[in-house]
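Researcher: Can you fold this with arginine in place?
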Amino acid sequence: MPRKKLWGGRFGADEDPFFAEFNDSLSFDRELLDADIEASMAYARALERAGVFSRKERMEVEKGLRTVLEENRSDPEQILRSNAEDVHTYVEEALGKKVGALALKLHTGRSRNDQVATDLRLYLRRKAELIGDALEQLLEALADFAERCPSVIIPGYTHLQRAQPVLFSHYLLAYGEMLLRDRQRLREAVARIGIMPLGSGALSGTVYAVDRTALARDLGFSTPTENSMDGVSDRDFVLDFLYFASVLMMHLSRFSEDLILYNSSEFSFLQLDDSIASGSSLMPQKKNPDALELVRGKTGRVYGHLFALLTVMKGLPMTYNKDLQEDKEALFDAVRTVENCVRMIRKVVENMRVNPERMMDAAKKGYLNATELADYLVSKQMPFREAHTLVGKIVVRAAELGITLEEMPLREYQSFSPLFDEGLYEFLDLSRAISRRSERGGTAQTAVRRSIRLLRKQIRTGVARHSRGRAD
Ligand code: ARG
């Protein structure tokens, strides 16, 4: 059946059904339904202020829009039974069934170009709030975990080689810092999302006395866009979000990778809960960390969406072009993916159990206290470079003997240097190595306790560390 199009005036031939399917966006842009109705209600109020609608007309339109919203809430699939080409057309048609010709009047001075740009901002503002909340909950979960194991020691790695001992809580808080920066990046994106293109018309502005500043305020935007051409064709705010999402996913992916390793039987530093792992159809002994593998894997598609939109925007002529319809599936999928991944990681963290003995075992075996031994020699006035070389030789000797540094007898040490005495063993103690690093940012318990306090405060206040004069 040929469709009656809202732009059908100048068209003679019927629309090719394959083209119609190719062109339509309703199947995905129905995500924007709430936003489209919210923006339309505010626009009706702006048209009343501009003298286009009488008060009675405006009230009728608003009531009609509310009914459309409610009907769709109770039956979310009904929108798919319509043959509208996109969500904006759908709302106009559905409103038409409630209020007749008034529905057409709502489009006075408005184009789908400024409409879709506005809807997308409203949608993203709401989603950003939910993702922000989810991120904060994950940050709290990390802080809670760090607080629950204040003295658990883990080997810290560089090059995936055991390097120096650190507190497990310190390790977790490293991810806390990353996610806190993500939270801040999201806030910065939200500030740029919060600008209103409505009233830009198709591209050149509106001839109706729509008070755009009042309209922006009504919709909770900080200000209207300054240039109508930019207003309808700008998608920087989507890119900002996708960049935020990509960096966040990169962080979650690194964390996933760590936890997958630490959960493996080779490490056995921790155990993921059965409830978030799955089995193998063939090998009965397997418990696979699927949740984390999926988070790591889904990072790829979020990066993909960022690059897809950057590529769509590159070479786009001014102003609106249908290419822009391609922003939606990328954005919607990124939003869903990020929301789910943050939630999934929180569940993983909340339910994982650490194995402090295994962690300590690994920390004891890799000569992680070799730096301490060098520091000991430095305390006896040996220059650090010299101490470094000497300790290197001592480590080789200990490895030959198949013992740890603390197991090596004093006379063995003294064969390397007369500076060694009984006091060296104190330096080799891992807890001592940790507690010596008590300067801000270090792994000592006191420093970590302070970091947890600061992290919690920053989750609550939303103040980024870099923008503060003092930390607390
Ligand atoms: N579905 C379209 C989109 O997502 C809405 C805007 C259509 N505007 C137009 N001039 N055809 O971009």
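Model: Folded with arginine in place. Confidence is low (pLDDT under 50) at residues 465-472.
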